[in-house]
Amino acid sequence: MARDRDPGREIIPAVQKLRIQHAKRDRLRFTSHRDFQRAFERALKRAGVPMAYSAGFSPHPKISYANAAPTGVASEAEYVEIGVVQLVDPEKLRAVLDEVLPPGLDILAVVEARTPDFVARLEASHWQIELPGTSKETLESAVVTFMAAAEVLVERMTKSGVRTFDARTAVIRANVELGADCAILQVVVRHGVPAVRPDDVLAALTKVADFVQEIPPRVTRLAQGPLLEDGWSVGDPFSLDREATQA
Amino acid sequence: MTVQSVFPALEQLLPRVQKPVQYVGGELNAVIKQWDDTIVRWCLMYPDAYEVGIPNQGVQILYEVLNERQDTLCERTYAVWPDLEKLMRENGVPQFTVDAHRPVGAFDALGVSFSTELGYTNMLTAIDLAGVPLHAADRDETHPLVIAGGHAAFNPEAIATFIDGAVLGDGEQAVLAITDIIADFKNAGSPGGREELLMRLAKSGVMYVPAFYDVEYLEDGRIRRVAPNRPGVPWRVAKHTVMDLDEWPYPKAPLVPIAESVHERMSVEIFRGCTRGCRFCQAGMITRPVRERSMTTIADMVANGLAKTGYEEIGLLSLSSADHSEIAEIAKGLADRYENTQTSLSLPSTRVDAFNIDLANELSRNGRRSGLTFAPEGGSERIRKVINKMVTEEDLIRTVTAAYASGWRQVKLYFMCGLPTEEDEDVLQIARLAHEVIKAGREASGRNDIRCTVSIGGFVPKPHTPFQWAAQLDHETTDARLYKLRDAIRQDKAFAKSIGVRYHDGKPGVVEGLLSRGDRRVGKVIEQVWRDGQRFDGWSEHFSYDRWMAAAEIAFADEAVDVNWYTIRERELSEVLAWDHLDSGLDKEWLWDDWQDALSEVEVDDCRWTPCFDCGVCDHMGTEIQVGPTNAVMLPMPTIPSRVAATSGA
């Protein structure tokens, strides 16, 4: 390799891909996606994971991130895929990576990638939205009105300006529970473009039902994955890889 | 009394502010201790935004040194942005630490590290948000001691009203000594209250306690004298100097933030102090003598730090990194060790005359040849003699020619405007120098796409330097000179496209000058401007020159002084300077002689390789120069078995 052009780096292809499920909890839910990327890449270094790197003058580790939860939203179901240049034991990787990440960024599961089209498998998300200070009845009546509507247009500021889109159709299921100091909204939302996010659902509730949330809600993505046969349950996106490994 | 976390209340506000992650902590290697298990509780503050404050080495070092003590806990706080400040005031949330979100007002000591005076207003915000009275005189036993440190603490007179103490010099041993005194005092049941504690601290000499000194003024506004107002308090308070940096290899576990910071790399300090003798440079004057860290300790700190942080870049820090006696061996040793990894090395401060292309090649072996930065500081040979920056034009051209010939495409040059004795011509020489650099670079590289960026800012005279007596250049003349330079470069038809010019206008320098050489009367200006809403003075979008001048107008209404008196006025040898009772070790006569030498364009050498020229520091402080070579050898890194490999790899 020409030394004066590229500083002697050999490009070693990835021999294995691994899919990682991680959580973003408690105060670290305020981590933005970029923040998480940096923290994760440094954790891979500390864990001594034999990462594959891209070619070129400023090589990047081979990592793909899918559907990151918004800043401020906690999650039990974030997904990342990495490429490595030496075979790695998924369970060891899970344990070591979890150990070197700060509490709150927790590694929940690792599987070897044995199947294609992983991102396409992430069809929907299950969000839990805790609304402190709101009564169950108020929330229920707002949800009934919302679900009865065919379309609820909401606005969101995006990089290209204010965008108006329907927040209703993507919501497959919504039900209300009573929490300790709050009402809890459980929603299953189908992924699409633009993605309907929990704050869009709340904006839609406000719009159709005069629903006002004074205290900021606590939102957690509980699951992300394929829609199961019942049409509204969210399955484990690692099932296929696990089956393929066992086979 | 156990202290509750304010996080539940803060959490409600975070969704409503910019970049909430900066307030949640959770850094790798952060330490959280049980409140009730410790006797002395420190909160350290870097008075700027989290992204600027978190990489600060001073805070990281002291944080670790203090937390290593069993009887002590140490947490950190940073300046909150105005959006959160407003919400905190509305909702009664106090200034908090990012570690365990404890209220700052509950700590025994709040140590504030000032790299620059531009953090003063942010300190006031923090004290006020903490529920601590702004004036030291109004505080009681329940309030933390507010202690200033960092370079600006060598003249803390402008903030004397707001602080209980100032620590001069290296903090490692000083914070431990202060902790001992606080622990003894608390264990004895806090006899005599706050006054007694401050008395013990002042008597020990570890800390300057402004309240124990009275300042008297002459009718013309100058200081008549500064004298202790209690028996047992030293007339002068001396700086602290840590000897043998190998004994203090901190930070051992650098903090790695989740949020993005201004320095995304791991820093290892390779030596402290600098005796090059640049006359404008306060850091070089107040951190003498040079104390090198050995090659072996540096290598260990790099290996350990990389393993604990996961950073990909190592910065070898010091005031002039290429001056380490074994820099070539260090650079080669590290480049060998980390060959074929993604780890890269950088040397943030390099002198033109200490730089050589072999060193640069080692540094860039694992990284990119992005750009090289040098600081000739003065545009003309004459002005470089005045400031004692002994870099010849020949040195500079030779160095940049070698760099362009070896594949670098971009060179950055730093200069100052407004140096003592400076004329327009001295600054206009920068245009000619940049022209010569590009010309030499095009010839050496055979390409036309090479670049040179000239970066220039206004000079601010600083205490404890030979220029402490100098008149600062007014901002109008500074700006006019900068425009002339910009125009001269633009008019250079064949070369203008290859030369970038970046300049900072002179107004912020006026405020910095006021604060740097300020005395206690300047405290009123700081308080006024802060009450008028001034925050984050280091940020151009928040800095307001007009607000500062309006505040000075009010604060100085009944005084014999004004902003010009502090900034553009030259001082005489006989004048009592506001910081004369603070001892940096430098002999005042020597500083004056050096000032006279500057005016006569006489240069002075570096005492590392010439006999001592009696600046006073080593004699007076009982310190000595500590430099290599050690002739040690950096061995290759041992291979660490993988913890994640699929086969057990035994």
TrEMBL record, chain A:
Pfam annotation, one family: DUF2344
Domain DUF2344 as annotated: residue spans: 17-198
Cited InterPro entries: DUF2344
NCBIfam families membership: sam_1_link_chp
Descriptive protein name: Unannotated protein
Organism: freshwater metagenome
From TrEMBL, chain B:
Molecular function per GO: catalytic activity; iron-sulfur cluster binding
SUPFAM superfamilies linked to this entry: Radical SAM enzymes
InterPro entries for the chain: CHP03960_rSAM, Elp3/MiaA/NifB-like_rSAM, Radical_SAM_N2, rSAM, rSAM_horseshoe, rSAM_sf
Stored Pfam families: Radical_SAM, Radical_SAM_N2
Domain Radical SAM core, chain residue ranges per copy: 260-502
Protein name (database record): Unannotated protein
Biological source species: freshwater metagenome
